[in-house]
Amino acid sequence: MIKDKQKQLNQLQVLFDGIVIALAYFLAWYFAIKNPIFPEGHGVLSPKVYFTALLPLIPGYLILYWIFGLYHPMRTMRMKNVLFRIIQANSVGLLISASLFFAFRKSGYFEHFSTKVLFYNYLGNICLNTLERYGLRRFLATLRKKGFNQKHLILVGFSAVSNRFIDACKRNPDWGYTIYGIVDDFAEKGESYRGVSVIGKIKELGDFLAQNTIDEIAITLPLAAYEKLPGIVAVCEKSGVHTKFLPDYQEIIHSKPIAEDLDGLPVINIRNVPLTDPFNAFVKRLMDIFGALVGIILFGPLMLLVALLIRLDSSGPIIFKQERVGRHNLPFQMYKFRSMRVQTVEEEKKGWTVKGDPRVTWIGKIIRKTSIDELPQFFNVLRGDMSLIGPRPERTQFVEQFKEQIPRYMIKHQVRPGMTGWAQVNGFRGDTSIEGRIRCDLWYIENWSLSLDIRILFLTLWKGFINKNAY
């Protein structure tokens, strides 16, 4: 029955999408051709030509929506993920349609086809599809909160993971999940958590499924009971009821894992690192190269002035090179303006710089306080040793110390270190908590996005370069 409802909902969604695609295209034609916002150079083709092009566009976009998963059940999907899929599908649609119109332009029929129509259609599709799906989600959420369009579940296993699942369902009533009860071999019948009770033993699961209308089964066994899993799956498969498995890994894996398919073999990665995706890494690298070049051009005169002042202030090299640990635990030479008198390697390794440190020169105090001493790292970014945004790199001896003292410290080396990062814009600069810095670094690694990098850049500029913890 639940499958029939989902099929009907998908059919309704396809119908709405077709109407929205046609409406967006009509509005694009109207504002680009019929009543143009920018009248100069608008198309001269007849409406018949433009609306003939709509015939393949509607099924083409519907296919793209299907490819990008917009017709999968979205009961528990966040709206921002839906929006991302809508943008992806429409971006691909824009590229394909523009390429086809360009290829057939010489045929004469589409020779003067307005590119404004395609662009306006792109924007209109994204906006209208987002509004359509948001409205439908709110409508269904209202129905579910009132007890309609519910999915009835049985949980197999009374455990920490079953409690977390119940908590999630209670927090999100718009999911429309009604938990019938829990079957478990270790808990007593009647024992409950937040109003969801144990209704029997696991061996009784088949009887409960036969006697009640259950839409889904959620296997929430604790790790200690995993030997029962084959028998439970066999009962679930025999009943024909949709079954989901919620692995109990929270005590082992302290992060959000990501699943993948390895030639038919299901694999759970214990940490989601978006920058391991080649496309994400390529986009970030392009941003680094562009940003480093802009930084060198923009701050070039300031760097020349600082170099001159360092030369006049004390003898020694202008650029200070120090070994730091980078991506994949590989050491590299990080560049900074020299802010201290020249020291031996042994003196450098003595420890952190402290307030009133006699080793710091007068110009060194200024450039350290204002973070100007970090500007030569733009060249590290160009070389590929560093990124504009990422966890700050640490010296080798401190890495050896921290990896023994701080859990998950070495995970930060799965990405390129950065000139600034999420930890720095959250106040962890200079002599501050290493544990707090690592928490921020790990969050950044698991939640990376291009928009997050841009946000950190703006926060770095907004909060300024003055570091009260730099001595």
Automatic annotation (TrEMBL):
Origin: domain of life: Bacteria
UniProt record similarity statement: Belongs to the bacterial sugar transferase family.
NCBIfam families for the chain: EPS_sugtrans, WcaJ_sugtrans
Record keywords, A-Z: Membrane, Transferase, Transmembrane, Transmembrane helix
GO cellular component: membrane
Organism: Oribacterium sinus F0268
Subcellular localization, as worded in the UniProt entry: Membrane
Family annotation (Gene3D superfamilies): NAD(P)-binding Rossmann-like Domain
Example of a GO MF term: phosphotransferase activity, for other substituted phosphate groups
Name of the protein this chain belongs to: Undecaprenyl-phosphate glucose phosphotransferase
Major subcellular location class: membrane
Broad EC category: transferase
Bilayer-crossing regions: 12-33, 53-71, 83-105, 117-136, 289-310
UniProt KW Transferase keyword: yes
Annotated InterPro entries: Bact_transf, EPS_sugar_tfrase, Undecaprenyl-P_gluc_Ptfrase
E.C. number(s) listed in UniProt: 2.7.8.-
Every Bacterial sugar transferase domain range: 284-463
Keyword Lipoprotein: no
